[in-house]
Design a protein that fits this description.
about 130 residues, mainly alpha, elongated, Rrf2 family transcriptional regulator
């Protein structure tokens, strides 16, 4: 299911792109969340090779120029792939609709997922930042 992880990750990356010394506390204040949430998100972004940081040293830095970081990269770093649409659990297999509903929805859900990913791939962190700092 769609949640706020992508938006929070983009928020974090936007702050880091303009202030590499920003601590998780400073970022958390901007995001309006707990610093632990920020540190977890930074960890995911590091695993995806988007960020670099050092233990015990406040701040982080982007590994690429913001124009070279697609929103799809960020999405894949922080969002479990199976989460966009939840599977319809336990429909009645004796019902003509219930026994075929998931199969009927799969094709539509896959095309919607692909369209969303194509759109995210066409946008960069820099595109977002251009809207922030007009």
């Amino acid at each position: 299911m769609i949640n706020s992880r992508l938006a929070v990750a983009i928020h974090i990356l936007s702050i880091i792109s303009v202030d590499e010394k920003a601590s998780s506390e400073i970022i958390a204040d901007s995001v309006n969340t707990n610093p632990v949430v920020v540190r977890r998100m930074i960890s995911l972004l590091k695993k995806a090779d988007i960020l670099t940081s050092r233990a015990g040293v406040p701040g982080a830095s982007l590994k690429k120029d913001p124009a070279d970081i697609s929103l799809l990269e960020v999405y894949r770093a922080v969002q479990k792939q199976e989460e966009l649409f939840a599977v319809h659990d336990n429909p009645n297999p004796k019902c003509p609709v219930g026994k075929r509903i998931q199969c009927a929805l799969d094709e539509t859900f896959e095309s919607v997922q692909k369209a969303m990913e194509d759109e995210l791939a066409s946008k960069s962190l820099n595109d977002v930042m251009n809207h922030l700092f007009l």
